[in-house]
Write the structure tokens for this entry.
Amino acid sequence: MAEESSGQPTVRSVERALDVLEALERSDVPLRLVDLCRQVDLHPATVLRSLAVLQRRGLVVAENQTYRLGVAVLRMAHGFLVNDQLSRHARPIMQRLTSVTGLTSSLYVRSGFERVLAVRVDGSPQLHYQVPIGRWFPLFIGSGKAIAAHLTEDEREAVVAMSEGSTTASGDAVDPDLLRRELATIAAEGHSLTIGERDIAVAAVAVAVTGPTGEAVAALSVSGPSEHTSKDRLHQAVPELRRAASALNERRPYS
């Protein structure tokens, strides 16, 4: 039994189910069983057992011989949004930030070596594509660099290593050496500024939101359509952006 073997079989089953759930979350399309097995590197029988459990909980749906996330995942997301104090405290601060700058403000919470959009307040004009809440991006591109620049040296090097072989929205290759120098500059200046990097039509400036020991827990950014948002306008928004980040830092609801 699981309890008689230190719970290891149970733990492995939970980890496999989470691997399956994460693979589906990262896919932009429903996955066939064979593709899902390949992504999680598990035998079909094992994956099917995990899928059966997840389907019973409404976390996964099977349709047309493929699998996708179920609506129950939204309940979990709702639970995060209403209980995460950083996100709750951020909204009124971001509403003022957008009111003052006229730009779209976004809060990306760090999750490992990625950032996840938790809160967005739209500016005017609105972006042609609104990133959905919950969308994740790597730390080596766009506003994620505001977080990456404040990581430990080893973590920063890990981010640089992850960038190898990647491209920007315009198709330019990410240069690891250039990224390393850029992160050092961002750490010194206290903000990142990117135009057309994550999205060719978006210009943004971002600062880190720090935790009680100074670690970067999120990135707060303002952005606008690149055709209407100059570097000068982004630089002018930096003081207000820093004030907003400081307001979040002072509250430290996530400590």
